[in-house]
Amino acid sequence: MENDFIRCSALNTLPRRKLQEALRVVEESPDDLSTKSVKQLAINRYADSNIPLEYWALKMEKNFTGDPRLLTRYQEYVSDLKVSYANGISICLAGGHGLGKTLTLTCILKKAALTGYSCLYTTLSDIVAVMTAGHTEDRATARRELAMVDFLAIDEFDNRFMATDNAADLYARSLEHVFRARSQNKMPTLMGTNSPNPVESFSGPLKASIDSLTQGYLEIFPVFPGKDFRKEGK
Fold first, then answer.
1. What whole-number distance in Å separates Cα of residue 222 and Cα of residue 142?
2. Which of 38, 48, 192, 199 could tie 155 with a disulfide, CB 3.0–4.6 Å?
């Protein structure tokens, strides 16, 4: 599958030295060439997708110890990624900290990336930073990548970054285009939020607009407390 957009470097927050080190470790490993090639492919696709290094080696079936309903929903989603992509199946995981939302989002992206889909993991704060402080070219490139990437995951989607009504309105204007393009074209969007209703992060007339876009497009999936895998150890 080929990308029909240019990657925005401002949306990629992975340290390049860490990527180079990971590739070097694989290259110097005793694995055969075939195994090395598979590992190198995975590393490069995870890096292109901006998946945090912490989650590269984690697996839902092994490391997830939270709400069992979420594990079931994950398995349903990745069981046929072609169907999930074709139907633009989009999910917003809503719950508190340490419940496995980010692990779930990144595991879906890893499956999709290795299948050949273009993917992007980002946070609302990083989007806000690019849209407000980035160069004009970066903003345009970011908007196109956010709208066109096959699988988009936006984490930490809550009102911590909406300090004022004016700020919320500004961010909503940028995101409205993204959500509209993705919903109209049935592009899967995955979100993680600490808020029971992410639409409440916005205010003013655009709140109603985004609320309308998400109705029937995003499945709000409440995540209930379970064991925190970060405290249990990996």
1. 29
2. 192
Q: Which of 141, 145, 74 is nearest to 112 (CA)?
A: 74
Amino acid code (one letter) for 167: A
Taking the C-alpha atoms of residue 65 and residue 224, their distance in angstroms, rounded to an integer, is 12
- Residue 90 tokens read as 């989009």
Torsion, CA 11, CA 13, CA 74, CA 65, rounded to 10: -150
Residue 218 lies in a domain: yes
Domain count, the chain: 1
Domain span at residue 201? Answer: 9-226
pLDDT profile of the chain (234 residues), mean per 10? 80 93 94 94 96 96 93 97 95 91 97 97 90 81 94 87 63 78 92 81 65 78 66 46
**Partners of residue 155 on adjacent β-strands:** 123
- pTM, rounded to two decimals: 0.89
**Cα–Cα distance for residue pair 234/232, rounded to 1 Å:** 7
